[in-house]
Amino acid sequence: MSDAAGVLARALREAPPDMLVEAADRTVRVLLDARGAEVLLADYRSTGLWPVRQPAGPDDDTPVDAAHRCYGAQREVLAHGDDDSCLLYLPLTAWGERLGVLVVDFATAPSPEVVRRAQELAGDLATALRAADRDTDRYRRTRRRERLSMAAEMQWDLLPGRSAAHEAYRLAGQLEPAYTVGGDHFDWAINGDDLCVTVLNGDGTGLGASLLTSVAVNAMRNARRSGGGLVEQAELASDTIYSQYRGRRHVATLLLELDVRTGRLGAVDAGSPRAVLVRGTSVRPLRLEQQLPLGMFAETRYEVQELLLQPGDRLFVVSDGVYSAEPGGREPYGRRAMARAMRAACLQPATEAVGTVIRELHAYHDRVDLRDDAVVVCLDWFGGGGRGGSPETSRSTGDGGRSTGGAGGGRTN
Q1: In terms of DSSP bridges, do strands 49-51 and 163-166 run parallel, antiparallel, or are they unpaired?
Q2: Strand 86-94 relative to strand 264-270, pairing
Q3: CA nearest 291: which of 264, 324, 321, 254?
Q4: pTM score, two decimals?
Q5: CA distance 55 to 330
Q6: How high is the pLDDT of residue 254?
Q7: CATH superfamily label, 3-141
Q8: Which of 66, 125, 135, 160 sits most deeply, having the most CB atoms within 10 A of its CB?
Q9: What are 88-118's pLDDT values in tens digits?
Q10: Which portions of the chain have biased composition (kind: Gly residues) (predicted)?
């Protein structure tokens, strides 16, 4: 760590959680001879970037095209002014989660060494912002452009994040409608070489659906954090939901667990969320045997199906509010339009691809509000040294079954 990064790290540790941006501003003025700094945070829809220190109104436009380029490409952008001044835009990203952009104002163009030091500062600031979010409302107030419903407040608090990165994969997800989402949700956890991803569709609407989904997510986390695999997670969640609702409510769920070294993917398909494989120009749903939704009956037992991903494969998981959407009596979005959107996003990283599918879904509704909750999760697996293979499923009686597959290549992203 450079001396500059060490000074900022110390300043961030000593600052109150709601004053991190001010601490960063003071530090860049002293260490980088800058005129100041601002932080722009992505809103809940990931469609705008908004300043923390000078909050904009809900209808204000943020004149920061360079900031959007920086956020989308995840690389620094220099914007020169007429008087030789320069704004340096740096991505604020912690463990693969894109938070926003750090803007540093210089009187003259910074040297490559100053840019490098600023990049280190941005990394420390992003990590601090992510940690501080638990202890202050300031950054969440910046992110929201309208009031969240109570159900949406619970759903956003329950999320693990909106993106994650690893040398073997990239992962991103989005909830819509962002400010009123009810029962749809996604969850993930990174534990060594295992990546668990879950997409849920809680029965009903509004606060009741959000409460139901919260019970399911926390039950699955309880099983997972106790060392349980997919079967234990599904069965504990199902038993917990049934004990509370006696079969009157249920949660449709798709549970996935990826071995990031080999591409071996375990799946428990317990309801309506669907997985779609993108391999090269091919877009097709995965063939999974659907089992009962969680909580429908007492002591329901589940089985894992397994498949192999090839290096370069992309996996979308979408809720029924995406593939079954029929606005104005049109054919379901999932019949043809969804595949077109996924192909259009083939060269985009996962973080941008989820936005493309969601934007096309909104366009399919002629820009009116979605009638149902919608979740899109995108997973890109680059390969981790294991053998690739055909993504065909096999049955097993628990988490320990195995399937076989040959080597194969795929799309790189």
Answers
A1: unpaired
A2: unpaired
A3: 254
A4: 0.89
A5: 40
A6: 98
A7: GAF domain (3.30.450.40)
A8: 125
A9: 999 999 999 999 999 999 999 999 999 999 9
A10: 398-413
